[in-house]
Design brief:
The protein is mostly helical. It contains 13 helices and 2 strands.
Protein backbone atom coordinates (compact mmCIF):
# COMPACT_ATOMS: atom_id res chain seq x y z
CA UNK A 1 0.00 0.00 0.00
CA UNK A 2 2.85 2.41 0.80
CA UNK A 3 4.42 1.80 -2.63
CA UNK A 4 1.06 2.43 -4.24
CA UNK A 5 0.55 5.71 -2.38
CA UNK A 6 4.08 6.84 -3.22
CA UNK A 7 3.58 6.11 -6.91
CA UNK A 8 0.27 7.97 -6.90
CA UNK A 9 1.98 10.92 -5.23
CA UNK A 10 4.46 11.01 -8.13
CA UNK A 11 1.64 11.25 -10.65
CA UNK A 12 -0.01 13.88 -8.47
CA UNK A 13 3.16 15.93 -8.88
CA UNK A 14 3.10 15.45 -12.65
CA UNK A 15 -0.53 16.59 -12.73
CA UNK A 16 0.46 19.60 -10.61
CA UNK A 17 3.17 20.56 -13.11
CA UNK A 18 0.71 20.33 -15.99
CA UNK A 19 -1.87 22.38 -14.08
CA UNK A 20 0.78 25.05 -13.46
CA UNK A 21 1.61 25.13 -17.16
CA UNK A 22 -2.06 25.46 -18.08
CA UNK A 23 -2.49 28.17 -15.48
CA UNK A 24 0.12 30.27 -17.24
CA UNK A 25 -1.63 29.92 -20.60
CA UNK A 26 -5.28 29.96 -19.59
CA UNK A 27 -5.43 31.19 -16.00
CA UNK A 28 -3.32 34.30 -16.59
CA UNK A 29 -3.40 34.98 -20.33
CA UNK A 30 -6.93 33.68 -20.97
CA UNK A 31 -5.97 31.48 -23.94
CA UNK A 32 -8.02 28.28 -24.06
CA UNK A 33 -5.56 25.45 -24.69
CA UNK A 34 -6.88 21.93 -25.25
CA UNK A 35 -3.54 20.72 -26.55
CA UNK A 36 -1.98 19.89 -23.19
CA UNK A 37 -1.62 16.20 -23.99
CA UNK A 38 0.30 17.11 -27.16
CA UNK A 39 2.99 19.10 -25.36
CA UNK A 40 3.08 16.45 -22.63
CA UNK A 41 3.64 13.78 -25.30
CA UNK A 42 6.35 15.78 -27.06
CA UNK A 43 8.27 16.10 -23.79
CA UNK A 44 7.83 12.42 -22.94
CA UNK A 45 8.91 11.07 -26.33
CA UNK A 46 11.81 13.49 -26.65
CA UNK A 47 13.18 12.56 -23.22
CA UNK A 48 12.69 8.87 -24.00
CA UNK A 49 14.53 9.08 -27.32
CA UNK A 50 17.38 11.18 -25.94
CA UNK A 51 18.02 8.87 -22.98
CA UNK A 52 17.45 5.56 -24.79
CA UNK A 53 18.92 6.26 -28.24
CA UNK A 54 21.58 8.88 -27.45
CA UNK A 55 22.31 8.06 -23.80
CA UNK A 56 21.78 11.64 -22.66
CA UNK A 57 21.76 12.25 -18.89
CA UNK A 58 18.22 12.55 -17.57
CA UNK A 59 18.37 16.19 -16.38
CA UNK A 60 19.64 17.29 -19.81
CA UNK A 61 16.87 15.29 -21.51
CA UNK A 62 14.23 16.86 -19.23
CA UNK A 63 15.53 20.34 -20.01
CA UNK A 64 15.57 19.61 -23.74
CA UNK A 65 12.02 18.27 -23.52
CA UNK A 66 10.89 21.51 -21.94
CA UNK A 67 12.75 23.72 -24.42
CA UNK A 68 11.48 21.91 -27.53
CA UNK A 69 7.94 22.00 -26.15
CA UNK A 70 8.36 25.73 -25.48
CA UNK A 71 9.46 26.28 -29.09
CA UNK A 72 6.41 24.36 -30.32
CA UNK A 73 4.22 26.35 -27.96
CA UNK A 74 5.54 29.63 -29.34
CA UNK A 75 4.92 28.37 -32.90
CA UNK A 76 1.35 27.32 -32.05
CA UNK A 77 0.73 30.72 -30.44
CA UNK A 78 2.00 32.53 -33.54
CA UNK A 79 -0.09 30.39 -35.90
CA UNK A 80 -3.23 30.87 -33.80
CA UNK A 81 -2.55 34.52 -32.93
CA UNK A 82 -5.84 35.74 -34.41
CA UNK A 83 -7.94 32.92 -33.00
CA UNK A 84 -9.89 33.22 -29.78
CA UNK A 85 -12.30 31.21 -27.69
CA UNK A 86 -13.71 28.09 -29.33
CA UNK A 87 -11.55 28.42 -32.45
CA UNK A 88 -8.32 28.41 -30.43
CA UNK A 89 -9.60 25.45 -28.40
CA UNK A 90 -10.35 23.43 -31.56
CA UNK A 91 -6.97 24.16 -33.16
CA UNK A 92 -5.04 23.31 -29.99
CA UNK A 93 -7.01 20.07 -29.61
CA UNK A 94 -6.17 19.24 -33.22
CA UNK A 95 -2.48 19.83 -32.48
CA UNK A 96 -2.60 17.30 -29.64
CA UNK A 97 -4.30 14.71 -31.82
CA UNK A 98 -1.75 15.23 -34.61
CA UNK A 99 1.08 14.58 -32.14
CA UNK A 100 -0.66 11.42 -30.91
CA UNK A 101 -1.21 10.17 -34.48
CA UNK A 102 2.44 10.79 -35.34
CA UNK A 103 3.47 8.83 -32.26
CA UNK A 104 1.15 5.99 -33.31
CA UNK A 105 2.23 5.78 -36.95
CA UNK A 106 5.88 6.80 -37.20
CA UNK A 107 7.18 3.39 -36.16
CA UNK A 108 10.77 4.15 -37.21
CA UNK A 109 10.90 6.91 -34.59
CA UNK A 110 8.43 6.10 -31.82
CA UNK A 111 7.92 2.34 -32.24
CA UNK A 112 4.26 3.02 -32.97
CA UNK A 113 1.60 1.70 -30.63
CA UNK A 114 4.15 -0.63 -29.03
CA UNK A 115 5.73 2.40 -27.41
CA UNK A 116 9.25 2.92 -26.09
CA UNK A 117 10.33 0.85 -23.10
CA UNK A 118 13.45 0.56 -20.99
CA UNK A 119 13.69 4.32 -20.40
CA UNK A 120 16.28 5.06 -17.68
CA UNK A 121 14.95 6.31 -14.36
CA UNK A 122 16.70 7.99 -11.42
CA UNK A 123 18.60 5.23 -9.57
CA UNK A 124 16.29 2.55 -10.97
CA UNK A 125 17.72 -0.86 -10.10
CA UNK A 126 20.15 0.57 -7.55
CA UNK A 127 17.53 0.97 -4.82
CA UNK A 128 14.40 -0.86 -3.71
CA UNK A 129 11.06 -0.11 -5.45
CA UNK A 130 9.96 1.87 -2.41
CA UNK A 131 13.22 3.81 -2.37
CA UNK A 132 12.83 4.49 -6.09
CA UNK A 133 9.36 5.94 -5.52
CA UNK A 134 10.70 8.12 -2.72
CA UNK A 135 13.46 9.47 -4.99
CA UNK A 136 10.96 10.15 -7.77
CA UNK A 137 8.70 12.00 -5.34
CA UNK A 138 11.58 14.16 -4.15
CA UNK A 139 12.58 15.07 -7.72
CA UNK A 140 9.05 15.71 -8.98
CA UNK A 141 7.79 17.68 -5.99
CA UNK A 142 10.98 19.75 -5.74
CA UNK A 143 10.43 20.75 -9.37
CA UNK A 144 6.76 21.48 -8.62
CA UNK A 145 7.82 23.81 -5.81
CA UNK A 146 10.43 25.57 -7.96
CA UNK A 147 8.05 26.01 -10.92
CA UNK A 148 5.21 27.21 -8.65
CA UNK A 149 7.45 29.83 -7.00
CA UNK A 150 8.86 31.07 -10.31
CA UNK A 151 5.43 31.31 -11.95
CA UNK A 152 3.97 32.99 -8.87
CA UNK A 153 6.73 35.62 -9.06
CA UNK A 154 5.98 36.14 -12.75
CA UNK A 155 2.30 36.39 -11.92
CA UNK A 156 2.92 39.22 -9.47
CA UNK A 157 5.39 41.03 -11.73
CA UNK A 158 4.49 43.55 -14.46
CA UNK A 159 4.57 40.65 -16.94
CA UNK A 160 1.73 38.95 -15.06
CA UNK A 161 -0.25 42.17 -14.83
CA UNK A 162 -0.08 42.59 -18.60
CA UNK A 163 -1.27 39.00 -19.09
CA UNK A 164 -4.28 39.68 -16.85
CA UNK A 165 -5.04 42.82 -18.84
CA UNK A 166 -4.95 40.76 -22.05
CA UNK A 167 -7.17 38.15 -20.43
CA UNK A 168 -9.77 40.74 -19.44
CA UNK A 169 -9.71 42.81 -22.64
CA UNK A 170 -7.00 42.39 -25.24
CA UNK A 171 -8.08 45.48 -27.17
CA UNK A 172 -7.74 47.74 -24.15
CA UNK A 173 -4.29 46.26 -23.40
CA UNK A 174 -3.21 46.97 -26.99
CA UNK A 175 -4.53 50.54 -26.81
CA UNK A 176 -2.49 50.99 -23.63
CA UNK A 177 0.62 50.32 -25.71
CA UNK A 178 1.24 46.67 -24.80
CA UNK A 179 2.51 44.30 -27.48
CA UNK A 180 -0.19 41.73 -26.86
CA UNK A 181 1.05 39.17 -29.40
CA UNK A 182 4.54 39.09 -27.86
CA UNK A 183 3.11 38.60 -24.37
CA UNK A 184 0.75 35.84 -25.52
CA UNK A 185 3.56 34.00 -27.30
CA UNK A 186 5.77 34.23 -24.21
CA UNK A 187 2.97 32.98 -21.94
CA UNK A 188 2.23 30.06 -24.26
CA UNK A 189 5.92 29.17 -24.51
CA UNK A 190 6.39 29.24 -20.72
CA UNK A 191 3.32 27.07 -20.17
CA UNK A 192 4.42 24.64 -22.90
CA UNK A 193 7.89 24.43 -21.31
CA UNK A 194 6.34 23.26 -18.02
CA UNK A 195 4.12 20.76 -19.86
CA UNK A 196 7.11 19.36 -21.77
CA UNK A 197 9.11 19.13 -18.55
CA UNK A 198 6.27 17.14 -16.99
CA UNK A 199 6.30 14.81 -20.00
CA UNK A 200 10.05 14.26 -19.71
CA UNK A 201 9.70 13.41 -16.03
CA UNK A 202 6.83 11.04 -16.83
CA UNK A 203 8.96 9.13 -19.33
CA UNK A 204 11.79 8.63 -16.83
CA UNK A 205 9.55 7.78 -13.88
CA UNK A 206 7.32 5.38 -15.81
CA UNK A 207 10.11 3.80 -17.94
CA UNK A 208 7.61 3.42 -20.80
CA UNK A 209 5.70 5.75 -23.11
CA UNK A 210 2.99 4.90 -25.63
CA UNK A 211 0.39 6.92 -27.56
CA UNK A 212 -2.45 5.66 -25.35
CA UNK A 213 -1.00 7.65 -22.44
CA UNK A 214 -1.72 10.97 -24.16
CA UNK A 215 -5.42 10.91 -24.92
CA UNK A 216 -7.69 13.99 -24.60
CA UNK A 217 -8.79 12.64 -21.21
CA UNK A 218 -5.45 13.80 -19.79
CA UNK A 219 -6.22 17.34 -20.93
CA UNK A 220 -9.71 17.12 -19.43
CA UNK A 221 -8.36 16.06 -16.04
CA UNK A 222 -5.89 18.96 -15.95
CA UNK A 223 -8.57 21.48 -16.91
CA UNK A 224 -10.78 20.09 -14.14
CA UNK A 225 -7.87 20.31 -11.72
CA UNK A 226 -7.21 23.97 -12.49
CA UNK A 227 -10.91 24.85 -12.46
CA UNK A 228 -11.47 23.18 -9.10
CA UNK A 229 -8.28 24.54 -7.56
CA UNK A 230 -8.69 28.10 -8.79
CA UNK A 231 -7.61 29.62 -12.11
CA UNK A 232 -4.98 32.30 -11.87
CA UNK A 233 -3.65 30.99 -8.55
CA UNK A 234 -0.53 28.79 -8.60
CA UNK A 235 -1.28 27.24 -5.21
CA UNK A 236 -4.81 26.52 -6.44
CA UNK A 237 -3.43 24.72 -9.50
CA UNK A 238 -1.34 22.41 -7.31
CA UNK A 239 -4.21 21.80 -4.89
CA UNK A 240 -6.62 21.05 -7.73
CA UNK A 241 -4.20 18.52 -9.23
CA UNK A 242 -3.90 16.73 -5.89
CA UNK A 243 -7.69 16.70 -5.57
CA UNK A 244 -8.22 15.24 -9.05
CA UNK A 245 -5.59 12.51 -8.63
CA UNK A 246 -7.09 11.66 -5.22
CA UNK A 247 -10.55 11.34 -6.78
CA UNK A 248 -9.44 9.33 -9.80
CA UNK A 249 -7.44 6.87 -7.70
CA UNK A 250 -9.69 6.84 -4.64
CA UNK A 251 -12.69 5.75 -6.69
CA UNK A 252 -10.83 2.54 -7.63
CA UNK A 253 -11.91 1.17 -4.26
CA UNK A 254 -15.61 1.54 -5.02
CA UNK A 255 -15.59 -2.04 -6.34
CA UNK A 256 -14.67 -3.35 -2.89
CA UNK A 257 -17.66 -1.55 -1.39
CA UNK A 258 -20.08 -2.68 -4.10
CA UNK A 259 -19.24 -6.27 -5.06
CA UNK A 260 -20.83 -7.87 -8.08
CA UNK A 261 -20.34 -4.96 -10.46
CA UNK A 262 -18.94 -5.65 -13.90
CA UNK A 263 -15.86 -3.80 -15.12
CA UNK A 264 -17.90 -1.54 -17.42
CA UNK A 265 -20.33 -0.68 -14.62
CA UNK A 266 -17.50 0.03 -12.23
CA UNK A 267 -15.79 2.34 -14.73
CA UNK A 268 -19.02 4.25 -15.32
CA UNK A 269 -19.62 4.52 -11.57
CA UNK A 270 -16.10 5.85 -11.03
CA UNK A 271 -16.50 8.54 -13.68
CA UNK A 272 -19.88 9.49 -12.24
CA UNK A 273 -18.47 9.75 -8.71
CA UNK A 274 -15.61 11.95 -9.92
CA UNK A 275 -18.05 14.18 -11.80
CA UNK A 276 -20.40 14.54 -8.80
CA UNK A 277 -17.50 15.37 -6.47
CA UNK A 278 -16.19 18.08 -8.80
CA UNK A 279 -19.68 19.50 -9.32
CA UNK A 280 -20.10 19.80 -5.56
CA UNK A 281 -16.73 21.52 -5.22
CA UNK A 282 -17.60 24.05 -7.91
CA UNK A 283 -21.11 24.52 -6.47
CA UNK A 284 -19.74 25.60 -3.12
CA UNK A 285 -16.63 27.31 -4.53
CA UNK A 286 -17.50 28.60 -8.02
CA UNK A 287 -14.15 30.40 -8.34
CA UNK A 288 -12.24 27.34 -7.16
CA UNK A 289 -10.98 26.28 -3.76
CA UNK A 290 -8.21 28.90 -3.83
CA UNK A 291 -9.49 31.62 -6.17
CA UNK A 292 -7.27 34.30 -7.62
CA UNK A 293 -7.03 37.24 -5.25
CA UNK A 294 -7.91 40.70 -6.49
CA UNK A 295 -4.72 42.74 -6.67
CA UNK A 296 -4.57 46.42 -5.88
CA UNK A 297 -1.62 48.66 -6.59
CA UNK A 298 -0.90 52.11 -5.19
CA UNK A 299 -1.42 55.05 -7.50
CA UNK A 300 1.79 56.56 -8.83
CA UNK A 301 3.03 59.61 -6.99
CA UNK A 302 2.75 62.93 -8.76
Amino acid sequence: MIDYLLSIAVFGGLYALMALGLNMIWGLAGMINLGLAGFYAVGAYLAALLTVKLAWPMPAAWLAAGLISAALGALVALVTARLRGDYLAIVSLGFAEVIRLIASNEIWLTNGTEGISGIPGPFRGAVSPQGYNVICNLIVWCLVAIVAVVLARLSGAPFGRVLRAIREDETVAAVAGKRTLAFKVQAFAIGAFVLGLAGGLYASVNAYVAPDSFTPLVTLYIILALTAGGTGNMAGAVLGAVLVIALTEGTRFIGALLPGLQAVQLAALRQGAIGVALILVLHWRPQGILPERARTYPAPER
